Amino acid sequence: MKTLVIIPARCGSKGIKDKNIIDVCGKPLIAYSIEPAMKLLNENFVDEVIVSTDCEKIANIAKLYGAKVPFMRPKSIAGDKAKSIEFILHAIEFYEQKNIFFDAVLLLQPTS
């Protein structure tokens, strides 16, 4: 089974500024989602780990922790009213256009 891990992290959080990259015990919040995902990747339990973001700063931090950022999320699906299914479908369609298909998607939200 081929599995895609998607970690969503948009800019513009209203409650806590830059919450996805705020320092929590010495590392950015998003690292707590990326690190276990990368462990799954390294142990061949998943096939791809990506961060779906609309923010260059978040993208750069995600890459430092080993995640891929193969695209920037369009602003139309990055607002606080956007539904998770929108960025999930966006990622799946991105890969399908490259003839890369997945059997499952694992969603790891940095704030959960």
Structural features, described:
This protein is α/β, with parallel strands linked by helices and 112 residues long. It contains three helices and five strands; from the N terminus they run E-E-E-H-E-H-H-E. The chain has helices at 31-42, 56-64, 84-96; strands at 3-8, 23-24, 27-28, 48-52, 104-107. The strands form two sheets. A three-stranded parallel sheet has the order 4-1-5. Strands 2-3 form a two-stranded antiparallel sheet. The protein is globular.
Task: Lay out the secondary structure.
Elements: E1 3-8, E2 23-24, E3 27-28, H1 31-42, E4 48-52, H2 56-64, H3 84-96, E5 104-107
Parallel strand pairs: 1-4, 1-5
Antiparallel strand pairs: 2-3
Rounded radius of gyration (Å): 13 Å
Strand content: 15-25%
- Can you give the helix content as a percent range? 25-40%
What is the end-to-end distance? 25 Å
H and E string: EEEHEHHE
The overall pLDDT, averaged over residues, is 95
Main sheet strand line-up:
4-1-5
User: Spans with pLDDT under 50 lasting ≥5 residues?
Assistant: none
Shape: globular
Number of helices: 3
Largest sheet: 3 strands, parallel
Look at the helices and sheets and give the structural class.
Answer: alpha/beta
Number of strands: 5
Summarize the model shown.
This protein is an alpha/beta fold and 112 residues long. It has 3 helices and 5 strands.
Brief descriptors of the model:
30% helix; two-stranded antiparallel ribbon; alpha/beta; 112 residues; 3 helices; single chain; 3-stranded parallel sheet
